[in-house]
Amino acid sequence: MIKELEIKLKQKGIRPTAMRLLVLEALSGQEAAVSLSDLEEVFEKSDRVTLYRTLKTFQENGLVHSIDDGTGAPKYALCEEGCECNIEQDLHVHFHCRMCRETFCLPKYKIPDIDLPGEFIPEEANLVVKGVCGKCSA
């Protein structure tokens, strides 16, 4: 497993340090997006700044994307295989459950192309659907 994680980091141009491998392993085991605070709970003895820098490095290199789900803290999720975080191709819908407060990526549901006037240059877009997830509605 660790070797696979090392390869994944190297493919994205990220040096595989011990902390980066641990954070990637933690993210790989998540069904929902996680916040910096969520990761702090997993790595109790770790420095918050180190975790933040790790997430930012992952984001800058296209390994994770951040989600603004309206809770006040960004959440992070691994990008799908082949994702380049390209605004025209890779943006997808997210779902935030108001009961369990988890945020899920829905990569099969793409954000539709928005034809902006020529003088507007899109840099990011975010579509979060809020409601009750399948676990909570059962």
UniProtKB/TrEMBL annotation:
GO BP term, pick one: negative regulation of DNA-templated transcription
Binding residue positions for Zn(2+): 97, 100, 133, 136
Pfam family, one: FUR
Signal peptide bounds: none
Sorted UniProt keywords: Metal-binding, Zinc
Cofactor note: Binds 1 zinc ion per subunit.
Keyword Lyase listed: no
Protein name, as recorded: Fur family transcriptional regulator, ferric uptake regulator
Organism the protein comes from: Sinomicrobium oceani
